Amino acid sequence: MPDLDPEDEKLIILARSTRARIQAAEGAAVRDTDGRTYAAATIDLPSLKLTAVQAAVAAAVSSGAEGLEAAAVVTADPLVAGASVQAVRDLTEHAPILRADPSGAVQEIVE
Questions:
Q1: H helical segments located in the chain
Q2: Which domain does 12 fall in, by range?
Q3: Within-domain flag for 1
Q4: Of 42, 35, 41, the residue nearest 67 (C-alpha)
Q5: What is the separation of C-alpha 85 from the centre of its chain, rounded to a whole number of angstroms?
Q6: HEC profile of 32-52
Q7: pLDDT tens digits for 9-55?
Q8: C-alpha span between 12 and 101 (Å, rounded)
Protein backbone atom coordinates (compact mmCIF):
# COMPACT_ATOMS: atom_id res chain seq x y z
CA MET A 1 0.00 0.00 0.00
CA PRO A 2 1.21 3.52 -0.73
CA ASP A 3 1.98 5.99 2.02
CA LEU A 4 -1.18 7.48 3.44
CA ASP A 5 -2.02 11.11 3.92
CA PRO A 6 -1.78 11.98 7.65
CA GLU A 7 -5.52 12.70 7.73
CA ASP A 8 -6.23 9.21 6.37
CA GLU A 9 -3.85 7.72 8.94
CA LYS A 10 -5.90 9.51 11.59
CA LEU A 11 -9.05 7.79 10.30
CA ILE A 12 -7.38 4.38 10.65
CA ILE A 13 -6.26 5.20 14.20
CA LEU A 14 -9.76 6.39 15.18
CA ALA A 15 -11.39 3.31 13.64
CA ARG A 16 -8.93 0.97 15.28
CA SER A 17 -9.30 2.52 18.73
CA THR A 18 -13.11 2.54 18.47
CA ARG A 19 -13.11 -1.16 17.55
CA ALA A 20 -10.73 -2.03 20.39
CA ARG A 21 -12.56 0.04 23.01
CA ILE A 22 -15.66 -2.14 22.87
CA GLN A 23 -14.12 -5.16 21.15
CA ALA A 24 -16.51 -4.83 18.22
CA ALA A 25 -16.29 -6.75 14.96
CA GLU A 26 -15.48 -3.51 13.13
CA GLY A 27 -14.49 0.06 13.86
CA ALA A 28 -14.89 2.86 11.35
CA ALA A 29 -14.25 6.54 10.94
CA VAL A 30 -15.28 9.04 8.30
CA ARG A 31 -14.10 12.58 7.51
CA ASP A 32 -16.65 15.03 6.17
CA THR A 33 -16.00 17.78 3.64
CA ASP A 34 -15.44 20.27 6.48
CA GLY A 35 -12.67 18.08 7.94
CA ARG A 36 -14.68 16.85 10.93
CA THR A 37 -14.32 13.18 11.87
CA TYR A 38 -16.84 10.70 13.20
CA ALA A 39 -16.07 7.25 14.57
CA ALA A 40 -18.34 4.31 15.34
CA ALA A 41 -18.32 0.57 15.92
CA THR A 42 -20.50 -2.24 14.70
CA ILE A 43 -24.00 -2.16 16.17
CA ASP A 44 -25.52 -5.60 16.69
CA LEU A 45 -28.70 -5.30 18.74
CA PRO A 46 -31.83 -7.39 18.37
CA SER A 47 -33.69 -4.45 16.83
CA LEU A 48 -30.81 -2.61 15.10
CA LYS A 49 -27.88 -3.90 13.08
CA LEU A 50 -25.41 -1.54 11.40
CA THR A 51 -21.93 -1.94 10.06
CA ALA A 52 -19.42 0.38 11.68
CA VAL A 53 -19.26 2.44 8.48
CA GLN A 54 -23.05 2.79 8.40
CA ALA A 55 -22.98 3.97 12.02
CA ALA A 56 -20.19 6.49 11.33
CA VAL A 57 -22.00 7.81 8.25
CA ALA A 58 -25.20 8.13 10.31
CA ALA A 59 -23.29 10.13 12.95
CA ALA A 60 -21.89 12.41 10.26
CA VAL A 61 -25.26 12.97 8.60
CA SER A 62 -27.00 13.59 11.92
CA SER A 63 -24.37 16.26 12.62
CA GLY A 64 -25.07 18.02 9.34
CA ALA A 65 -22.39 16.60 7.04
CA GLU A 66 -23.29 17.01 3.39
CA GLY A 67 -20.43 14.97 1.95
CA LEU A 68 -17.44 12.81 2.84
CA GLU A 69 -13.78 13.11 1.92
CA ALA A 70 -12.83 9.59 3.06
CA ALA A 71 -13.83 6.62 5.17
CA ALA A 72 -11.88 3.88 6.93
CA VAL A 73 -12.88 0.55 8.39
CA VAL A 74 -10.81 -1.76 10.59
CA THR A 75 -11.99 -5.33 10.27
CA ALA A 76 -10.79 -8.90 10.09
CA ASP A 77 -13.08 -9.45 7.08
CA PRO A 78 -11.38 -9.76 3.68
CA LEU A 79 -13.75 -7.25 2.00
CA VAL A 80 -15.59 -4.05 2.81
CA ALA A 81 -19.26 -4.96 3.32
CA GLY A 82 -21.53 -3.91 0.47
CA ALA A 83 -23.80 -2.06 2.91
CA SER A 84 -20.79 -0.04 4.09
CA VAL A 85 -19.79 0.92 0.56
CA GLN A 86 -23.37 1.91 -0.24
CA ALA A 87 -23.64 4.10 2.89
CA VAL A 88 -20.58 6.07 1.80
CA ARG A 89 -21.77 6.25 -1.83
CA ASP A 90 -25.18 7.52 -0.71
CA LEU A 91 -23.41 10.61 0.60
CA THR A 92 -20.42 10.94 -1.74
CA GLU A 93 -19.82 9.19 -5.03
CA HIS A 94 -16.02 9.09 -5.05
CA ALA A 95 -14.71 9.09 -1.46
CA PRO A 96 -12.07 6.41 -0.93
CA ILE A 97 -12.81 3.70 1.64
CA LEU A 98 -9.70 2.33 3.35
CA ARG A 99 -9.90 -1.22 4.71
CA ALA A 100 -7.34 -2.06 7.37
CA ASP A 101 -6.75 -5.25 9.29
CA PRO A 102 -6.93 -5.26 13.11
CA SER A 103 -3.25 -4.25 13.34
CA GLY A 104 -4.06 -1.09 11.37
CA ALA A 105 -2.29 -2.14 8.17
CA VAL A 106 -4.23 -0.95 5.13
CA GLN A 107 -5.16 -3.91 2.95
CA GLU A 108 -7.33 -2.23 0.33
CA ILE A 109 -8.60 1.13 -0.87
CA VAL A 110 -12.04 1.01 -2.45
CA GLU A 111 -12.37 3.90 -4.87
A1: 6-22, 52-62, 82-91
A2: 6-110
A3: no
A4: 35
A5: 9
A6: ECCCCEEEEECEEECCEEECH
A7: 999 999 999 999 999 999 999 999 999 999 999 999 999 999 999 99
A8: 10
